Structures
1.
Amino acid sequence: MLEIFQNLTPNMCVLIPAVVSSNVQQQQIRTTINKHYNPQFRKHRGAKIIKIDLPDLTKEKDDEMSPERMRSKMKEKGLQPPRPWNERNFYISNSGGVFEPYVPPEGDGKLSAVTVKGAKQKLEFVEKKGKSMMAVRKIKSYDDDFTLKDFVQDATEIYKNAHEALMNFRTDKEKLEEFVTEKAYVEMTENAKYKTVSWKFHQSLSPPKVVHARTNSVVSKDNLFAQVTVRFHTQQSLCIYDRFGRKIYGDENLVKDVLEYVVFEKHITEQYGSWRVHHKIIPDWMPASEPIPRTFRKPEPLPDLPDQPEDEDKSSDSSSKPDVAIATA
Amino acid sequence: MSLFPKITQRLCGLPSPLSIVNASKSLSCGLHTSAWHGAKFSDDQGGRTWFLRNEKVFPPQKPGEEPRPAFVCHMRSNVRGNYKNMWYQACFVRGMTIDEALKQLSFQRKQFCADIKEVLLEAQEKAVKEQGVEFKSNLWIAESFISKGSHIKGMRRHARMRMGEIRYQYNHYYVRLEEGKPPANVYNPKPSGEEMLQEWLERMRNRYVRISF
C-alpha cells in the first residue's frame, strides 16, 4: 500500500466509487490525499505552526471536578483558593424530623367497631397516654384555645388544602408553604416537579383521631416544636400524568380507601407559628401501593463498601417489599 | 515576532480562576497575548434555553387522544471541530433511530464524531431516567444541529516575514431525541416523475389570462 502512495503526484485523486446504501456504508470514499509530495522537509513545515495548549473543554468541566481535584489543579498553576465572603442567615422554621414517631398498631383500620377488639381500639384515647397528655398540656400552655376536638377539624382542612395546593404548586409556590413544612415540601414536590397531579378528597370513612403528641426543643430549650399525629381513614382518588400529559398512575374515577397517619407540626414558641403537615408515617405492615404500569430496567446493585452509611429511605426497608416499581407520590 | 501586534480580548463576566490561568500558560513561546481564553469559554456555553425545553409540563391529555411522544433535549458545549465539517455530521444523524446513529457514528473518521456519539448516549440515558421513556431503543433523532462557540486563534509562519492565522474552532452540538419510530422522510424527498407531472399540470391549469374578452 505504501508504494502506491509514494508514487502519487499532487494532481492525482484517489476515488474509489462507493455504494452508499441507506443502512451500511460499505466502502470509504477518499478524495485528495492531505500529504505533501516531498516528505524531506516535513519537520520544517511542522515547525511553522506555533503550538498552543488547547483546552479540552469536554473532558473535565470546572463544575464537575471534585474539590480535591480542583485544589490540586490550582496548586499546579500557583493559584490561591478563592475566599468566600457570603454570610447567610438561616432560620429554623421546622424541626428536621419526627420526635418519637408513633407506631401504629397492626390490624388498624381492618376491625369494625362492632367487634370487641374494634371497640377497644376506638377507646384508646390520647388523653390516657402519659407522654402525649403532657405534650397536649404543654401546647395548651402556649395556645389557650387548643382542644383536640377542634384541632382534628382544622387538621382535616389543612390536609385537604395542602393536597390541593400541591396540584398547582408550580404556579403558586407560596400557597403550599402555608400548609406544609419545609421538610414535607421537599418530599411532596421532588417527584412531582414535572408531573401533573389530580387529587380528590371524597369523604371520611371514620372521624379523624389524634393518636400521638410530642413536644421537643431544637437548638435551645425555649425553642419548642409540637408534633401531633392524626389518623385519617378516608376515601380519595388520585391520577398522575407525566410531563407530556400521559396518564402514568391511577385513575380519575377510581376511589380508594386510604388509612394514613399524618404528623402535623407547629412552632409553638413563635408568635406566627401555625399547624402544618410535616410527615406521614407509613407502618411496616401497610401493604405496598399499586405498582406503576411502566416497566424499567432494574438498576445494577452498587458494590458493597465496608463503611457505606445506610440510606434513609422514605418507604422503610426495601428487602421486605416486592421488587416492583412503587409510585412515590 | 516583535512586529506582530498585541491581541487583546475583553473580559466579560466572572470566569473560574482555573480557566483564566489555563489560558495564560497556553502559549509556550514568548509572544504576548491576553490570557482570557478561559473567560471566553466559561461565558459561552451555548444556548441556555435548550435545556428549558425539558422542563415544560404539558396539560393532561383527554382519554381518546393519541399519546404525545416523549422527547429529551440535550447538548454539549465547546466541542472542538471545524464548523462546516461538523455540520455535515449533525445532518447525517437526523432522522435516524438512536441505535442506527450510534452504529454509524462509530465508523466516521472525524474526531468530533466520538463527542457526538457520547452526547447521544447521554441523551438516551436522560430520556429513560428523567423523561419517562420506557424502551431506550425506541428513540429517533428529531433535531440535530450545531452552533458556533468561541474560537481560539493561533498563528503560523509564512515566507517573507508574514504571519497567518489558524482558528481552532469550537462548536455547541444540540440534539433532541423523540420517542417512537422515525418518519419515512426527514428531508424533503425528490418528487417522482408522476408527481412532477401532476405539479406541472396544476401550474399550467392555474394560469389566468387577464384583460381578455
Note: The two ends of chain B are 81 Å apart (CA to CA).
2.
Amino acid sequence: MTMFHFFNCAILTFGPHAVYYSATPLSEYDTLGTSVKAALVYLGTALVKLVCLATFLQVSENDGFDPYQELLKALIGFIDVAGLYFALTQLTHRNISQNHKFQAVGLGWAFADSVLHRLAPLWMGARGLEFTWEYILQGLEANANLVLSISLAALASLIWLRKNKPKTLIPIIYACAGIVATMPSITSYLRRGLGWYFPKVVGFELFTSLVMAFISWQLFSACQRPSA
Amino acid sequence: MAALKKSTELLESVYSVVALLFILLACVGLCDAAAAVDVYRLIQYDMSGSPFGSRFAALNHHAASLSFPPGADLSRTVLIIPLRELNITFVREYITQKKPLGGLLFLLPEVLSFKHGGNMQVHEKEKMKKLLAELERLLVHSNIACPVYFAFENDDIDTVLADIKKNDAMGQPATATTGGYKLVIPTAEPKKVVSPTITNIQGWLSGLKADGDANQLPTIAIVASYDTFGAAPALSVGSDSNGSGIVALLEIARLFSLLYSNPKTRGRYNLLFGLTSGGPYNYNGTQKWLRSFDQRLRESIDYAICLNSIGSWDNELWIHVSKPPENAYIKQIFEGFSNVAEELDLKVGLKHKKINISNPRVAWEHEQFSRLRVTAATLSELPVAPELFEGTGSLFDGRQYVNETAIIRGVKLVAESLARHIYGHQGKNVQIFADESILAVNPAYIRSWLDLLSQTPRVAPFLSKNDPFVMALKKELADHADEVNVQHENLEGIFTFYDSTKARLNIHQVASVTFDLLLLLVLGSYLIVLFCFLVITTRGVDELISLFRRPPSRKVKTA
C-alpha cells in the first residue's frame, strides 16, 4: 500500500514531463539529446549555486524571513538564469527550430529540477506507513515548476535568440522574465515571511505558472508574427 | 586497448556504487509515526509446562476503541482500553472464550508512571487498586493468544484515542480499506530466558565474643525478599511489596552496625541480614539459602524476623507465625513486640497459619524457616496470606502507594524489640533508638532508597547475575555488615520465563487502499487529459483522432 502511494506521487511528479515529451512534436523531432544536455547544465548550475550559498549565506536559527539573506539567495538564483542562457545559446543543438529548442531545454531543466529536489524526499517519505498530503502537494508543485520552466525558457529564447523583436514588447519580455526568474524567492517569502501553509503556496504557484505561461505564449506568438 | 579496459573498470565501479546506493536507500528505516509511545508487555511464562500470559510480542494491526460496532471482526484489530473505561467482564469474556483478537493495549493513568509520581484522591486510589488487582489477577493466570501491552496515557495517545472513538462512532471500524490508525511494534518473537538466576545477599554482624568459644553465640536473622513479580515486569517496582521491607532491613542494618561498631555496645548476639530473591515463587530463594547453611549456623539461629510489606499501614501490624501461639519462643517474641508497640502507639496482632507440608505453596517467608525447624515470624501489614503472584509488585504498587512514616514506625518497632532482646532490657521502658539521638531512624535514608526502589523493576528472571541493582544492594549491605556473601542459584525448574518486556509502539495514521486507488484514477485521467490537451494545441485535433484511428486505416491499406 505504501509503495502504491509512492508510485502515485511519482507519476504525479514525473509523469507530466514524459507526457509533454510524447504529446508535443518534440518526440517527432527527436530532441531528447537537447533535453539531456539541458538537464546536465542544470546539474552544473545547481552545484555552482550550492557552493555560492555555502560560502556567502549564514544559517539562521529561526525560520523567519530575513530580507538580506533572501536578497542574497535571489542574486544567487540568477545563476540559474545564466545557466539557462548557456544551455540555450552555447550548447550545439542539431538543427531544430527555435520553437522546439526552448521547449526541449525547458523540459530538460524542469525534469532535472524535479529529480534533484523531489526524488529523494519522495523515496524516503512516501514509502512509510504514515500518510501525509505533503508528497501530493510536492507533485503539484513539480507540475507548476514544469510550466514555469518552459515559460522561462520561452522568454529567455526570446531575449537571446530572436534578433528582431518589436520594440514595444521588449520591456514586457524582460519584466516577465524577471518575475519568473525570481519565483523561488517569492514563494519562500510567502512561506516564511507571511507564513502561508504549503497547500496555499502550491495553489499560488499553480495559478501564477498558468498566468505566466499564458502571457509568455502571447508574447512568443506576437514576436513570431513579424518574422513569419 | 588499455583505455577501453580502464573505462569498463570505471563503469563497473560506478555500477557497483549505484547498486550499493540503491540497497542502502531501500534499507533506510521508514519510521515517521504520528506518535511513538513506550509500552510494557504482559508477562509471559510457563508453569509446569502450561503457558500463561501473553504469548506474542510483535504487533501490526489497526486500532479500535471500546465503542466498536457490535459484531465487528476483531481478529486483526487492537483494542485500546483506558483504565477508566475498563469492563472486566468484557475482557474476561474475550480471554476465557478465546475469541479472536488482534491485541490489547491498556492505558494506565499518568499518575502511576514513575516519572510522574502524582497524588491521587484516597477513594480513587482504592477503586483503582481494586480494578487493577482484578485485571492483573485475570491476565496473569490466563493464556492469551495475542499481544497485551500496558502504556501510560499522555497527550499524543489521548488525541489518537479520541480520533479513533470518533471514527468508531460513525460505524466504520478501521480496516485496510477504510483508513484509520495502525499500531506497529516491530519486535522479534519472545525467547526463553536461559537459566534465570536468583541471587541471595547476606550480611553478617558478629556479636561480642565472650572469653569462651566464639561460635556459640546465638544469632538473630532479619530477612526480606527483594524481587517482584507483576503483570507488566517492566513496571513491577513493588514499592510496598517488598520495597518497604528492603528499606527497613537496610535501615535496621545501619542502626545496628552503629551500635556494633563500638565493642562496648556490641551485643552478645550475631545478626544475620538476608536479602533473598525468588520471593514470588514460593520463596524459592529463601529455601535454597537456608539449605546452604551449615547445620551449626542453622541451629544457632534463635529466631528470624521476615519483613513483608510494611509501607502502607495506619495503625495495625500483624505478626504471622506457623508455630502455635502457645509456644514459649513465639510468646516471647510477641510480647517483646507488643510492649514496644504500645509505647509507639500502634497495635500488633498475632496470626497463626499452620503449614501444610504436602502443599507446595509457601505464602509467607517464615514458613521456609519453619520447615527447617527454625523459629520465625513475618511482620506485615497484610492480615491474610497473599495468593500466588498476588501482592508481589502489582501495577498500582508505585511510589505514591507507600508512605515513609509507616516504614519509619515499622523500623522503630523492629529495632527496639530486637535491641531489647539483645541487651536484655525486656519490659523496661528504655528507648535505644530515640529520635534526635545518634541512633535515630534516618528519614532521608529511607526516602532515598524508597525512591530508588520505586524506579527499579526487579523481576528475578530479568535480573542478570551482575545486575547493577543487585550489586548496589550488596555494596550497601557491605557498608553496614562485617561480612557479605552473595549466593547465585537457579530458579526452580517449574517456571520458564520469556523476554521482551518493553517496546516502542509506533502509531501511524494510514490511508485506505480505496484512497490510493482513487488517487491513481484521478492521476491517470489527469495525465490522459494533459496528453490530449498538448496534442491538440501543438499538433492539432486531427493528430489526436488519428492516434485512435490507426488500426482501421492499416486494415484499409492491406485490403
Note: Helices of chain A lie at 2-23, 32-56, 67-90, 98-125, 134-160, 169-181, 183-193, 198-227.
